[in-house]
Amino acid sequence: MLIKVGLIGAGTVGSGVIDIYLKNKDVIKEKCGTDIKLSIVCDKNISKIEYLKDFNIEITDNFKDVLNKNVDIVVELIGGITVAKEIITSALEKRKHVVTANKYLLAEYGEYIFKLAQDKNACIGFEASVGGGIPIIKALKQGLVANNILNIEGILNGTVNFILSKMEENKTFEEALKIAQNLGYAEKEPDFDINGIDSAHKIIILTALAYGKWIKMDNVLVQGISDILPLDIQIANELGYKIKLIAKSKKEDGKLGVRVCPTMVPKSNILSSISNAYNAILVEGDFVGPTLYYGLGAGKNPTASAVWSDICYIAQKLYSGAGKLYDFNNFNSNIPVKHKYDFESEFYIRILAEDKVGVLYQISRIFADYNISIKMVFQKDIKMENSLVPILIFTHEANYQNVIQASQEINNFDFVKGKVFVCPVE
Question: Is residue 332 domain-resident?
């Protein structure tokens, strides 16, 4: 049986998918147990895929040619949500199976897309959408199926983790970002990465798999890393912590809480040791206990490898003649979602203030008003820009909403300059 594949998008990941096919198609056939042919490739810059005609692969610059072609599996790798949504929904309407790496689209429209796939009895492969070559989707879908998932937390963005690793070398955020861009780890427009949005898309997908519920972006606490100073990295290190951008999804008291924010992680936690562009995801099940998934979370080859794992899985199902092809749950859990500010933690709070008498008293009074107990205070004997003094506060366990409201009031003091920085301490 010959399984025909159409690829839309021959950019970084798409070109990796082509490379794997041209180099390893015999390996794929042997391991997959069926013959898979890359029949047609679409890219808006058709000149860069002209060479594929030498390999008997049809080329086009119109994605509708792929949808109208007699292919079994459509691979969408163009990114974005407008055209990509049209491609995926049109493919499913035609009862074609879909493979995608598009976490933005799935996070925004996952509930609709999976309902359509279920109605059409079609497969969706999206291993490449989270963690690059790390098989976290398969782990949640199959490997941990006998478990209630208690907690998911991890480092889901290699760009951000690389920047934070460089800041441990006393680089400023801006300096570390520039290094990441020069090395190709960060885009020219890195907002989705550094503002935590990319990680939020990924944790929404993992949450849907683990808890059977697609949650909206508005219900996710999302905080980026651009406000972190080398001083924050330094004080964390001195006290036995590392600052990491942690994406977390956890069911507590019968409710689901999801967040992405810089977090002080103790050095005893394995996530603290993940450096540079690597990702790591901890998943805890009620019977299996904690499990760890680690590797390069992005890049041409790891992501293309994940795409091929989905292609092969779908091809095997088609070859087997399985009647039921759609194989996910109904994503109809009625678990309530907590307000994104509704969680308890210890917190680290950094304030840049003028060196005046009574500053610490007024700050402490605000914390008392919001029932926030201070664990320890450091007033570093260093002068920042404009002769500002950093006041570093660690709290006992407190409610995040109270901490944010207190921080906003503190920000209104004339003697406080710049934004008060807040992050949970694990």
Answer: no
